[in-house]
């Protein structure tokens, strides 16, 4: 049981770190141009230097929603990690991890919403580039989506142990 809890804790910390990286780094979409590689994130457009991300009026609300849900997912993931540590040492068997699992599943839902909106609105759109493709931040966000769902379910199952 202790090994299982330690494994879940390590995966949870890895998920928090990957969420930070995927939200902060500007490599959600990558494309090639005459001037080199162009990368676009949630905040900046980077070629040789990074500038404010140009967004049309119709896409501005979608981008702000993606930004907000990614930040919310980080917050919920950190809160779930703190709750896990607190509940591990304070609650008795059979009552542990209800709240932690629920908060982690809310984090999972926030990631799902953010990445789904980004996929629907911003895929294959890198200004002045050819051959656009997804960057590592987009892939990390989907990996965090999977990890947060698995961790949330495991927390709910572990409440019985």
TrEMBL record:
Subcellular location: Membrane
Membrane spanning residue stretches: 7-29, 65-85, 97-118, 138-158
Superkingdom of origin: Eukaryota
UniProt keywords, alphabetically: Glycoprotein, Membrane, Transmembrane, Transmembrane helix
A GO term from the CC aspect: plasma membrane
Topology versus the membrane: Multi-pass membrane protein
Pfam families linked: PMP22_Claudin
InterPro entries per UniProt: PMP-22/EMP/MP20-like (IPR050579), PMP22/EMP/MP20/Claudin (IPR004031), PMP22_EMP_MP20 (IPR004032)
Major localization class: membrane
UniProt record similarity statement: Belongs to the PMP-22/EMP/MP20 family.
Name by which UniProt lists this protein: Epithelial membrane protein 1
Source organism (scientific name): Loxia leucoptera
Source species taxonomy: Eukaryota, Metazoa, Chordata, Craniata, Vertebrata
């Amino acid at each position: 049981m202790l090994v299982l809890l330690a494994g879940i804790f390590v995966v949870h910390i890895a998920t928090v770190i990957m969420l930070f990286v995927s939200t902060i780094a500007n490599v959600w979409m990558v494309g090639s141009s005459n001037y080199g590689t162009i990368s676009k994130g949630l905040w900046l457009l980077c070629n040789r230097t990074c500038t404010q991300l140009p967004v049309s009026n119709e896409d501005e609300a979608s981008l702000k929603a993606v930004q907000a849900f990614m930040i919310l997912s980080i917050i919920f993931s950190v809160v779930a990690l703190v709750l896990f540590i607190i509940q591990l040492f304070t609650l008795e068997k059979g009552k542990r991890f209800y709240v932690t699992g629920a908060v982690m599943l809310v984090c999972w839902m926030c990631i799902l919403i953010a990445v789904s909106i980004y996929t629907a609105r911003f895929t294959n759109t890198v200004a002045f580039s050819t051959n656009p493709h997804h960057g590592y931040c987009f892939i990390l966000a989907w990996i965090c989506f999977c990890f947060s769902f698995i961790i949330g379910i495991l927390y709910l199952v572990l409440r019985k142990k």
